[in-house]
Known about the structure:
With 426 residues, the protein is α+β, with helices and mostly antiparallel strands.
Amino acid sequence: xxxxxxxxxxxxxxxxxxxxxxxxxxxxxxxxxxxxxxxxxxxxxxxxxxxxxxxxxxxxxxxxxxxxxxxxxxxxxxxxxxxxxxxxxxxxxxxxxxxxxxxxxxxxxxxxxxxxxxxxxxxxxxxxxxxxxxxxxxxxxxxxxxxxxxxxxxxxxxxxxxxxxxxxxxxxxxxxxxxxxxxxxxxxxxxxxxxxxxxxxxxxxxxxxxxxxxxxxxxxxxxxxxxxxxxxxxxxxxxxxxxxxxxxxxxxxxxxxxxxxxxxxxxxxxxxxxxxxxxxxxxxxxxxxxxxxxxxxxxxxxxxxxxxxxxxxxxxxxxxxxxxxxxxxxxxxxxxxxxxxxxxxxxxxxxxxxxxxxxxxxxxxxxxxxxxxxxxxxxxxxxxxxxxxxxxxxxxxxxxxxxxxxxxxxxxxxxxxxxxxxxxxx
Length: 426
């Protein structure tokens, strides 16, 4: 008899150990859920012995369901969690999925799998964004990122998309004010998504409101790529050339192209050497009116070989014979890579007046690579002016046995004798 009583006692104690927390949890959640339902005018479903309490309802244009259940996901022990599920009652036209980074997604990123970055390193390092670049950058303003952070960083599991949202929180110590705050955050996210604004207008508004320069730069990129050659886009790009961040200025100028040429020359004197190189590279993508007057002063006003080389590369791309005299004047004073780039620039901008200075230089230098560059430059000039009767063309002569000695076609000889490249065999 004693053993039977002891067994029944142990059984009751064990049952109380397992069932007691469940009953207590139900009581707490019932109180919290009822308060949420009363304050938001939602529907409350009572808990039973086998079912947790539930709340569902609608606020704004979004329906919500609040559930509680046991979860084995987060630890070995069964834990009661609270899930807030939301579904908008409209179609937004956005293709967007956001959830916290996992170990697997970080490994995929390291292996080159594409996911969207918006320029905010704090957000990009924590959240994984899938969808379209335009949708992500236009929707994720600083305010929207803050709302998503407030949900994701406190949730055990989080997923937001244009069609649904799920947030799972620990039930330990949860209060009605916490749940209501999260519901309002989700409502604000979908309310923003429903706003009657074009994605171009969203990008423009985001640019004006954004404090992080890297995000403003990203907005400029997306705006220029998806809405090119539009008045509103050009206005923002022009405005961005006055941004406090040089990186934003450069990005705007890169997409403005020829329209930003004048602004580039205004900024060159103010810029550091590194920024000047970037600005000059942008100039290399366009045809510069009056390049022979605008770029030589920039060249003379710098001591940086890197800037000088970049200017010479830009001059080479202009294919402008008006630059011949300036480039020839550099042959005597330039050295190393700057001299090499000067010779390369003459290949596209040099006239027949450059042939003799180039040949004189060839006889003076010992660098075989520079000699080869000079030889190719002479050939290109000869080819360009072949058959034109241009005075100064090099032609065959009886004195070719003397190293490097080339004769010049006289003005009266005509084109039939022009165009030969008489550089000695190496």
